[in-house]
Structure formats: structure tokens, C-alpha cells
Amino acid sequence: MKEELGLDHFEGRSWQGLHRHALMTMIAYAFLQHQPLHKAKREKKEETRPA
């Protein structure tokens, strides 16, 4: 998360700002992790569908 999503780019001065930046980074990470799982699930569902 540090290099790929920009967690290390925070240059703020407040604890609240750091918290918000870390939260948004974690949300972006969760979204990116969800994408391949959702795609794999959709492809598996299409394979099991009878023709």
C-alpha cells in the first residue's frame, strides 16, 4: 500500500489528516483486491451455466 497506493505521499500536519489519508488508501486497496475476485466469480458462474 505504501508505494502502489500513495500511503507514503502524505505530507500533512494533523493526526486527523493522516487518519483520513490512511482510510482512503485502505479503501482503495480493498477496491483493487475486490476487482479480480469479482471477475473470477463472474467467470466461474458463466462456466457452470448450462448451454
Describe it.
InterPro entries: IS701-like. This is Transposase. With 51 residues, the protein is mainly alpha-helical. It has one domain (7-48). 67% of the residues lie in helices and 0% in strands. The protein has one helix and no strands. It has one helix at 15-48. The longest helix is centred in the middle third of the chain and has 34 residues, at 15-48. The radius of gyration is 17 Å and the shape is rod-shaped. It starts with 14 loop residues before the first helix and ends with a helix. The model has no long low-confidence stretch (mean pLDDT 83).
Derived from helix and strand composition plus strand pairing, the structural class reads mainly alpha
The amount of helix comes to 55-70%
Chain-averaged pLDDT = 83
List low-pLDDT spans.
Answer: none
How much strand content do the residues show? under 5%
**Major β-sheet annotation:** none
Rg result: 17 Å
Number of domains: 1
Run of helices and strands = H
Keywords: Plasmid
Protein name: Transposase
InterPro entries: IS701-like (IPR039365)
Q: What descriptors fit this protein?
A:
51 residues, mainly alpha, 1 helix, plasmid, IS701-like, Transposase
Summary of the model, kept short:
The protein contains one helix and no strands.
Helix-strand blueprint:
Blueprint: H1 15-48
